[in-house]
């Protein structure tokens, strides 16, 4: 293993001096956190596992037990949840099938560039806290502070939301049992998964993603048959269906307002895509496993989101009463994936899809605890959060950070009170646009990294894994993020239903912006640091060591292959 700069191998000591989270390669793990040899302690199955980990000479370090198969599945299916399976129904009713497809495609292009930018940074600097630490390092420590807390808050609200949707999913089969029972059942399940730490999250996401992807593929095959008129006799789709719904009731609804409104649903549906970069810090060898995982995002965007929603727009009318009368955007009876099975007369398929929605929602709940707790731990490492949250136990779990996120899950019970939905809507407003700020920060971090990289005399050949679109792709991603924020601002003033919003309606749509600005101001007042100049950006400290002989040999082999094969290997 060789490094292109001595600073890259200076180890944890230098990083600790300047407050940067570190990453120690496996070969030098003895200098960092010490893993116990006891199997039960390693996997969090005894009381001894909750004791404080011996950090050795390094900074706080999380577990590194994720395998390439885990990262690949987290990338391709980890964040497919209620936003895709259920939220797509409200988006269809708001904008129509054409708007649904166009908006998701635009967000897909944005996410493609965001994830590749994140991949380039994460391979070079696979640190706990991921994108938050990149904002601190390459943009502005105060903005990094805002992004870190913004991300923690986003997931802290998502956890009780997903628990609530779990109870709604169960009510599809049995509405008589009190929702509190099912919230408790799934809350306990999320706690159990987190007892197993990183490996618990990774395994749960692997199998849940496999199930979600399999179900989506099955749905697309059935949808294709239904569009061609091969549905059961007596159902809606027993004769050629084609694109009739694009003509009646039409491809668009609510005009430009509807077009802008669907952007938010699309962005929410892609939330969590960035978790693969966060998980890289807990992979055994990110430089090898992460690039392949990042490339899977292309398949998820094109096959599952775009193709799946194309079939939704072909089979479910945008003025369907189930969509228009949905009690909320999380009402599973308004899921177009459930409705297709119901209208086709496929006995049991609607129940199967509701089960998949339930699995998806639980999966996002687990991801919320994982993503929020790891970011909170990184904030504590750099002094941006109480020190207690930097505690990592002997099985590699950030114990108090996980506990804090799980405590937010109790907010799900608020929804049971009479005024619960109102309170919950305001909580959601706090994090409604959080993902967009995170994605924009990733793109800007990549742009500033590339500028500082060149300033300090480095070349692109020294970057092990390069984003497909380069710095131009990050500019495109950043511009699209800004345009979506502008579209949401317009919708906050002029809702799709017509007229103008009142103050409460505006802030429920756009409360995240003043909250982020408040965090940014708080970070500045606390740390007294502003926008970093190019010469102030350190691109060397904390860079991981890579095997350049292996990388250069792969590049030579790739250069000798036909152009079509080179493009295929870059993308897939």
Dominant shape? globular
- Helical proportion? 55-70%
- Can you write the helix and strand succession as a string? HHHHHHHHHHHHHHHHHHHHHHH
Number of helices: 23
Write the layout of secondary structure elements.
Layout: H1 11-18, H2 39-42, H3 68-77, H4 82-85, H5 87-124, H6 131-138, H7 141-171, H8 179-195, H9 197-227, H10 255-270, H11 275-279, H12 286-315, H13 321-324, H14 336-344, H15 349-381, H16 399-408, H17 420-431, H18 434-455, H19 470-493, H20 503-510, H21 512-527, H22 548-559, H23 563-571
Helix pairs in contact: 3-9, 3-12, 5-10, 5-12, 5-18, 5-19, 6-7, 6-18, 7-8, 7-15, 7-17, 7-18, 7-21, 8-15, 9-12, 9-15, 10-19, 14-15, 15-16, 17-20, 18-19, 19-20
Index terms:
572 residues, mainly alpha, globular, disordered N terminus
Explain how this protein is built.
This protein is mainly α and 572 residues long. The protein is 63% helix and 0% strand. Helix 9 (197-227) runs antiparallel to helix 15 (349-381) and helix 14 (336-344) runs antiparallel to helix 15 (349-381). The chain is globular. It starts with 10 loop residues before the first helix and ends with a helix.
